[in-house]
Amino acid sequence: MFRPSQAFRFQASQAPPFQPSQATRIQPCQVSVVKSCPAKSAALRGEIKSAALQSEIEFSMYQLHAKSAALQGCKDTPGKKTMHLLCFGFFLVLCSSSSALDNGLVRTPPMGWMTWERYRCNIDCKNDPENCVSEHLIKAMADQMANEGWRELGYVYLSIDDCWTKKQRDPNGRLEPDPDRFPSGIKALADYVHSRGLKLGIYSDMGNYTCGGYPGTTLDTIKTDAETFSSWEVDMLKFDGCYSNDTEKAIGYPKMSSALNATGRQILYSCSWPAYEGGLPPKVNYTQLGNICNMWRNYGDIQDSWASVLDIIKWYAVNQDVLQPTAGPGHWNDPDMLITGDFGLSYEQSKAQLAIWAILAAPLIMSNDLRTISQEAKDLLQNRLLIYINQDSLGIQGRQIMKVDCLGVWKRELVNGQYAIAVINMGDDGLPRPFTTSLGLLNVTQCPVGYKLYDVFDRNYLGLFNSETTFNLKINPSGVVMLFIQPASVVNHMKRHGSYFG
After folding, report:
1. Would you call 434 helix, strand, or coil by DSSP?
2. DSSP 8-state code for residue 208
3. Burial environment of residue 219 by CB neighbours within 10 A (0 to 12, 13 to 18, 19 or more)
4. What is the pTM (predicted TM-score) of this model?
5. Which H or E run contains 195?
6. How is the chain split into domains, by residue range?
7. DSSP letter string over 273-310?
8. Which of 40, 46, 482, 494 has the greatest number of CB atoms lying within 10 Å of its CB?
């Protein structure tokens, strides 16, 4: 449903310095790689003309080199194995540099805010002017995101969900905003959002009506609507699927992808299609989705409750063999919005949702009131190490690697031989659960000199551990313990342990 423009980046001091000159080490790969991609050889023959693509190639090679070095005794010395990894990485970047969607967006999961879960279809601006879906609400949230540190952390998409239009199209067949709630129009609202360093998202529905009963986008209005959104300088489209049949969806979702491409504007494309088809093959073709959508909902809407969050987590665990391989840079599974800061989750449950969403490499799209959010909830959502894990540039979705009674143990591989672990207590009996493990049992053993462990939410450096050393965790009911694991020989990204938690 959403995406941030550029991949989230920590400051230079937070990661080993990227040196573009490293790319020159693997120049011999270039000729053979182009031969391996005959369909794209004309576009890629000779020098890479796009500076942006060249930068992405160099950065990808750098990451592959760093990861390979971390796995080879944690030494930064490229050998033959490293060269093979680099050549293979170069091949992948070149061969995948243009997709059917072809917008180059969200190389890491998008981050931002949207209206739906908190504000639904509240159009009563007369009696509830501060909370109705309106340009006033969007501007207020834009100000909060710009002034309260959200934007700098990567929360840049600000998205209007359903119920923003008039009840009918204009005489030219175009969608138009409700004039009472959006008196300045969407283009002016986009200008305001952009002036705050943010990106505006909007909503439509592949069907006769939106889920809220407003004009939908039918097959014959897809081109018109894509051009309208582009003319308004919208940056993201959530495309829902109410009031259409399977055949219409199968035609409409790819058609909208092509129509957005044809506008020439980079518009993040969030597809709700798989959620209407049960979320799983054979009805859902994830290979096709990865080529036409930047992100997709594949399960039911989240509600403001722990039962809803836990239901989503369990569904992702049960179906992870299907879902995990489908996610990656530019195309993400979306388990739905973050409800931290609303009414339905405790502090422990808020941590649990955030931890699993980070492990899943899921979009971090909040739906809450940033004007009144508690400091406790704000601190969770602005946890730098959590965001660093979520935004890891490898883009590998994590998995549940074991289940012990009511405890689920999740693991995600990160760049440079790093890992994130989340142990979630799904029990409801009120009893904190002990969990004893070791890096060896978690299959984190590649670095013989050991690993540094950090507690993500307690914001503590826990010390240096080898693969055999056991450690004890205690997980609160409906809570989580999340660990960040870093090879001992890797220089701290931010030089001081505490700066992970700034």
Report:
1. strand
2. S
3. middle
4. 0.81
5. helix 186-195
6. 17-95, 101-298, 401-501
7. GGGGGTSSTTT--HHHHHHH-SEEE-SPPP-SSHHHHH
8. 482
Residue pLDDT, tens place only, 254-311:
999 999 999 999 999 999 999 999 999 999 999 999 999 999 999 999 999 999 999 9
Burial class (CB in 10 A: 0-12, 13-18, 19+), 35: exposed
Sign of CA dihedral 102, 106, 112, 113: positive
Q: What residues act catalytically?
A: 240, 301
Helix (H) or strand (E) holding 486: strand 480-487
Other Cβ atoms within 10 Å of 318 Cβ, number: 11
Query: Hunting for tokens 């080993």 — which residue is that?
Result: 16
Amino acid of residue 475:
I
Write down the H helix ranges in 235-368: 246-263, 286-292, 306-318, 320-323, 347-359
pLDDT at 493: 52
The predicted pLDDT at position 53 comes to 35
Tell me which of 3.30.10.10, 3.30.460.10, 2.40.50.40, 3.20.20.70 is the CATH number of domain 101-298.
Answer: 3.20.20.70
**Residue ranges of the chain with per-residue pLDDT less than 70:** 1-100, 492-502
Distance of alpha carbon 269 from alpha carbon 256, whole angstroms: 9
Residue 366 · residue 498 · CB < 8 Å: no
Cβ(236)–Cβ(114) under 8 Å?
A: no
Residue 435: CB atoms within 10 Å: 16
User: Which of helix, strand or coil describes residue 469?
Assistant: coil
Helix (H) or strand (E) holding 389: helix 384-390
Q: What superfamily does domain 401-501 belong to in CATH?
A: Golgi alpha-mannosidase II (2.60.40.1180)
Enumerate long-range contacts of 139-147, CB under 8 Å, 24 or more apart. 139/189, 139/192, 139/193, 140/371, 141/113, 141/370, 141/371, 142/192, 142/193, 142/196, 142/198, 143/196, 144/370, 144/371, 145/113, 145/196, 145/198, 145/370, 146/196, 146/197, 146/198
Contact call for residues 196 and 152 (beta carbons, < 8 A): no
Residues 64, 86: contact at Cβ < 8 Å?
A: yes
* Structure-token pair, residue 4: 């941030």
